[in-house]
């Protein structure tokens, strides 16, 4: 995560950052900054799947509850969850109590373990789908892309659930696989710099 140079309210930001009190901090320090840590990537894939049909504010305000419920999104721990854990989570008012999405998180943790065994890290897999500049349009004008379609298709073929192209593209935006901040947003050059310095993970040979 990155700390903004100035947290003043008068700084130019993406228009969505003014949509809720929780958004400026998330916008300034997280959204679009590149992430190469498997746990954080897995967490965001899970939270994006929970968001389907809901607003991001709903998920963001419950994020700490989700982290507590799913053991900090440690992949191996989540992969070991059982039907008893599903039953427990369905009574947890701090999260979204949707059986299909809860079961998908556990399933996807198991699929993530398989993927990591094959490629060395979840990060290596994710970053292999980094969008090419020529496939992207003006900032925040797209809801999916060829690379997001390809990643969603590959995840589905590997047995992942609740991760379609639109969800995957939102994940890519937030995890820094592209810089989708508005041209005049003060965070855009900071994300450009972070992406330039970021060492892309590669698959194990």
TrEMBL record:
Domain of life: Bacteria
Protein name, per record: DNA-3-methyladenine glycosylase I
Species of provenance: Nesterenkonia massiliensis
Source lineage: Bacteria, Bacillati, Actinomycetota, Actinomycetes, Micrococcales
């Amino acid at each position: 995560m990155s700390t903004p140079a100035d947290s003043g309210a008068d700084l130019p930001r993406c228009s969505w950052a003014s949509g809720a009190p929780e958004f400026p901090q998330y916008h300034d320090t997280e959204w679009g900054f590149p992430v190469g840590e498997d746990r954080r990537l897995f967490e965001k894939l899970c939270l994006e799947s929970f968001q389907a049909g809901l607003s991001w504010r709903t998920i963001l305000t419950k994020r700490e509850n989700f982290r507590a419920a799913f053991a900090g999104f440690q992949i191996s721990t989540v992969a070991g969850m059982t039907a008893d854990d599903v039953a427990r989570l369905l009574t947890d008012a701090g999260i979204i109590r949707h059986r299909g999405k809860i079961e998908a998180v556990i399933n996807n943790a198991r699929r993530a373990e398989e993927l990591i065994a094959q490629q060395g890290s979840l990060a290596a897999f994710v970053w292999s789908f980094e969008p090419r500049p020529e496939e992207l349009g003006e900032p925040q004008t797209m809801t999916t892309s060829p690379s997001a379609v390809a990643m969603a298709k590959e995840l589905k073929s590997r047995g992942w659930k609740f991760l379609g192209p639109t969800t995957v593209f939102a994940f890519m935006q937030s995890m820094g696989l592209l810089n989708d901040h508005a041209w005049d947003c003060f965070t855009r050059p900071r994300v450009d710099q972070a992406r330039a310095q970021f060492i892309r993970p590669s698959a194990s040979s």
